[in-house]
Design a protein that fits this description.
Strand order of the largest sheet: 1-2
Distance between the termini: 28 Å
Strand content: 5-15%
Structural class: mainly alpha
Largest sheet: 2 strands, parallel
Order of helices and strands: EHEHH
Helix content: 25-40%
Number of helices: 3
Shape: globular
Length: about 70
């Protein structure tokens, strides 16, 4: 599954655009209104979460993630 989140201050793919470009994967692409919503969906899903995209996205996500103790 892919949860598409907006990246503040950057042009980025929208879920509808990506679904149109990749119709065979469209049922796996889900829009999110904000990064927090995407992170919540990742947290609640089974499997190992992966944040992929630009360094801008990673930077915004990093500031919102809590680091787990060693």
């Amino acid at each position: 599954r892919a949860w598409m989140v907006p990246i503040e201050g950057c042009r980025c793919w929208q879920a509808a655009e990506l679904s149109q470009a990749l119709p065979t994967l469209s049922k796996q692409i889900h829009p999110c209104e904000a990064l927090e919503e995407g992170l919540n969906r990742l947290h609640d899903s089974p499997g190992t979460p992966v944040i992929a995209g630009s360094l801008y996205l990673l930077g915004q996500a990093w500031s919102k993630l809590e680091r787990e103790p060693d």
